[in-house]
Write a structure and sequence with these properties.
Helix content: 55-70%
Structural class: alpha+beta
Strand content: 5-15%
Distance between the termini: 149 Å
Shape: rod-shaped
Oligomer: single chain
Order of helices and strands: HHHHEEEEEE
Amino acid sequence: MAAVAQCVRGALRPRFPLLSFSLRTSPRLLCVATQQKNTGQNLEEDQSQSQNEQKVETSSAEKTLTEEKAKLEEQLKEVNDKYKRALADAENVRQRSQKLVEEAKLYGIQSFCKDLLEVADILEKATESVPKEEIKDENPHLKSLYEGLVMTEVQIQKVFKKHGLLRLNPVGAKFDPYEHEALFHAPMEGKEPGTIALVSKIGYKLHGRTLRPALVGVVKDA
């Protein structure tokens, strides 16, 4: 084949030098074209492989990011829950502290009031012990003493009321174990069972809280 090509080139060289040159160079051109084609195929294969690798890497990265996002969302949820619980605990502590402060303001004088109740009891007994028939102009000293005791008792009750301390004199009321202390139970005609027939000692309440229960006698069924 090479000899034939050489003879053809020799015969054509004098007349068609360009054609001869083309025949001489065409195998090289074919080789170059073949190499370029192979190179193009290799490039396409490399690009395809690179794209596949990029897709795998992208898919792996997306999966990692999704997992990280889920973890962060879970951590955020836990932090929010802890924050809300901390706020609720702080609010409960604040409310309890405020309640304790308010109660301290209201009931801080409780022990002092208990001591004053004994003074009020003595004043009441003193005024009750004075014979009413002896209170007259012929006994000016006794009358003045009695009037002074009454005025003192009235004034101390005003002070008690000013500071939220109120008397409990529950004659005829229903017996309440939170406000009354029963000394005895006895049947009485014309009285409803369970009601208070007699008050032996006045009780007191401080801002709605029983400071001292009233000592009473309660009616029971015959």
